[in-house]
Specification:
The chain is built from 23 helices and 13 strands. By secondary structure, the protein is α/β, with parallel strands linked by helices. The strands form 3 sheets. A 7-stranded mixed beta sheet has the order 9-10-8-11-7-12-13, with helices on both faces. The protein has a 4-stranded antiparallel beta sheet with strand order 3-4-2-5. Helix 1 packs across helix 12, helix 8 packs antiparallel against helix 11 and helix 14 crosses helix 15.
């Protein structure tokens, strides 16, 4: 168990004292700092220098340049962060590390296999069974372990660049290893693609043979079905029956047009004959050569009639003959028109007959076309199957040609390329002698300064009580501090020689409460142990002393150690407040035990409510508590009541304490006897305090708080 010092909220750290302590020990700190710097210099000089080099690899898609294929390579494939991280793990794979280790013969270098030549200390530890024999681990595993300790592979953030770093005692080897690892990685990637191509070619070859046979069977089924059903093609898409149906339909349309045209022309001529209209406007009539000659003759006769009408009368035989010729010409024109009409009607009838024949053929072909359509559906299914087999075969053939073009290693580039080769370093990266010495010296200086400050803090020389705060003491920590011998020493001051046991009884009129308070302040007394042989009346004087000291501005605490609890009744608000007995029993902390005086600025630790017998078992801890409280208060008054000298000796171990004997009624013999008892118990000097004042009177209160 330990009792700590005062709470941080109640104690201040004296920074000036800490600085002075460091300055006082500057020589020792300087020696430690210089020793650390020298040791760092020696150690860095003994270490083997390490050199570091790096190779950078860019991850990108690289396709071969096709010589005969019209397709263009795709170079913009995206690599996400996980893909780049996967490539980092491939670069760190054991297979690549083994390849590089064998290629560069790393096992022959002591740097990578120090266990091959163990030191004497290692052999001694192994022989004693205190260490594991490093030769039990296979040599290759030892080399790989050292290899990975020197290797660092990482991806540059927000890029597809991978950095391969390697450090070694040999600058040339530090540059060769990352280059060799990058080359092994590129060869591995190319080998993977070549292996994929070989596997693809091995799989495609039998598949192509199977598809060729399947395609032949499908095409034979198409040809056989077409011959069986008569679905002969006349062009790329149409069969014979479809072509015939199309031709007949076209011919029927043409015949129908001719028939309609002939009927319309015949109807026009017929209507002209029936209505007696002139047929000169009818194209078919005018197209007749006979009608044209007759119209020419008619024109000549009409010209003669016009010429002869000037000399001959209408009854002249010549005139009659010419008119008769005109009438004959009209009859011939009409007869010729009827022949044209008959010809047109004949053509219309012929077209009608031709139309009927074509309709019959068309109907027959339609019946056959319906049957052929069902057969064509089956034919199309066979053709689609053959077409799918042909398309798949062409795809496989193209892929097979592509894999065949990548059958060599140089024809299949890896999906990465080296963008920066490693260069042998001219300066080592470890050890950095200057920074190591500076850091070591600075660390030694800081640790030394911290050690000095901690020593000052633990010794208490750098602590001072905080203004205006009551102590918060941990009882267990204070005990440990006392046992460890770090409690703050307080010088003990003697009382006046006039109070010695050999002296005659003194004049007690000079030892009033005010005089005692003044003496305590002049002597800077920190602990005052008050003994009141006359009981509660003397205890009341201790209460008055506490109030007088508080009235003078001193931080004063009274500890009620009496059996009656008189100080508690006079100062505390309630006699049931927790106090000293509760504290000694460990039920409360010191902060909870301290209470304010109801009539002054002083404070009190009441008697308490716990079992007094149980509390007295821990009374040996009380001096440590008093010492801790003395750190926070200007004066700690321990009122013991009518205690015997031996009992007071058990608790009066505080350094710088004064033993005050309170006298209420002067009795020289009794006083001398009491002084002799205390002298025999180890208290050769006492301070007397007398009073005849009631502590609860107005005058007492006024003087106490003045």
């Amino acid at each position: 168990m330990s009792v700590g010092a005062v709470n941080q909220t109640d104690m201040d750290i004296d920074l000036g004292r800490l600085v002075r302590a460091i300055w006082e020990r500057k020589l020792a700190i300087g020696v430690v700092t210089a020793a650390a710097a020298g040791f760092a210099f020696v150690v860095t000089g003994m270490l083997d220098p390490l050199y570091k080099s790096e190779t950078r690899v860019l991850i990108e898609t690289r396709e071969p340049l096709y010589s005969s294929d019209t397709r263009q390579p795709v170079n913009d494939a995206a690599f996400d962060e996980r893909a780049v991280t996967s490539q980092v793990e491939i670069l760190r794979s054991i297979d690549l590390a083994k390849t590089v280790a064998r290629e560069l013969d790393l096992s022959s270098r002591p740097e990578f296999d120090p266990a091959a030549d163990p030191s004497v200390i290692t052999e001694l530890l192994v022989s004693l069974g205190l260490g594991k024999n490093p030769l039990d681990v296979p040599a290759e595993e030892r080399v790989l372990k050292a290899f990975y300790e020197k290797l660092q592979v990482y991806a540059v953030p927000a890029s597809r660049v991978i950095v391969i770093e390697f450090n070694s005692e040999d600058a040339a080897l530090a540059a060769r290893v990352p280059d060799a690892l990058a080359d092994a990685y590129l060869a591995f990637k190319s080998g993977v693609k070549l292996e994929n191509n070989s596997d693809a070619g091995a799989w495609l070859e039998p598949e192509i043979a199977r598809l060729q046979a399947s395609l032949r069977d499908a095409e034979q089924r198409v040809a056989g079905y077409r011959a069986e059903k008569g679905l002969l093609l006349v062009n790329e898409n149409d069969t014979l029956s479809v072509k015939q149906l199309s031709d007949i339909s076209t011919e029927l349309s043409r015949v129908r047009g001719e028939r309609a045209d002939a009927e319309a022309r015949a109807r026009t001529v017929r209507n002209a004959i029936q209505s007696g209209q002139s047929v000169d406007a009818i194209g078919d009539v005018l197209g007749s050569a006979l009608v044209q000659r007759l119209r020419e003759s008619e024109g000549a006769i009409r010209a003669q009639l016009a010429d002869l009408s000037t000399t001959l009368l209408d009854g002249h035989p010549r005139m009659k003959a010419l008119r008769a010729q005109l009438a004959d010409i009209e009859r011939q024109v009409l007869a010729e028109t009827r022949k044209v009409l008959s010809s047109l009607e004949s053509n219309a009838k012929l077209a009608t007959n031709r139309e009927e024949d074509l309709l019959g053929q068309l109907n027959t072909l339609k019946i056959g076309s319906a049957r052929e359509g069902e057969e064509t559906v089956e034919l199309r299914a066979l053709e689609r199957e053959a077409a799918s087999q042909r398309a798949l075969l062409e795809t496989y053939l193209a892929r097979f040609r592509e894999t065949a073009s990548r059958s060599e290693l140089n024809s299949v580039p890896a999906d990465a390329r080296v963008i920066s080769r490693a260069v042998a370093a001219s300066e080592s990266f470890f050890p950095k002698t200057g920074p190591i010495i500076i850091v070591s010296a600075l660390s030694a200086f800081l640790l030394s300064a911290i050690f000095v400050m901690l020593a000052e803090l633990f010794s208490g020389r750098a602590l001072r009580p905080a203004e205006g705060f009551a102590p918060d003491i941990d009882f267990d920590r204070a005990a440990d501090a006392e046992v460890a011998g770090i409690a703050h020493p307080v010088a003990m001051r003697p009382t006046p020689a006039a109070l010695s046991p050999q002296a005659s009884p003194p004049d007690i009129s000079d030892f009033s409460i005010e005089a005692v308070a003044l003496q305590l302040m002049d002597d800077h007394t920190s602990v005052a142990i008050c003994v009141s042989p006359e009981g509660d009346e003397g205890s009341a004087a201790s209460v008055m002393l506490a109030r007088v000291m508080a009235g003078e501005g001193a931080r004063t605490l009274l500890i009620d150690l009496t059996q009656s609890g008189c100080p508690t009744e006079l100062m505390a608000e309630s006699i049931r407040l927790p106090g000293l007995t509760d504290l000694l029993c460990g039920e409360i902390s010191i902060a909870d035990a301290i209470h304010a005086d109801r009539l002054s600025e002083a404070q009190i630790i009441p008697r308490g409510n716990a079992n007094p017998r149980r509390a007295m078992r821990a009374v040996e801890r009380l001096p440590m508590v008093v010492d801790s409280l003395a750190e926070a208060y200007d004066l700690v008054i321990v009122e013991c009541g009518a205690a015997e000298a031996k009992g007071v000796a058990r608790i009066a171990r505080s350094r710088g304490s004064e033993l005050i004997l309170t006298v209420v009624r002067a009795d020289a013999e009794r006083l001398a006897a009491t002084i002799r008892d205390f002298s025999a118990a180890g208290f050769p000097e006492l301070m007397l305090m007398t009073t005849d004042m009631d502590p609860d009177s107005p005058d007492a209160t006024r003087n106490a708080v003045a």
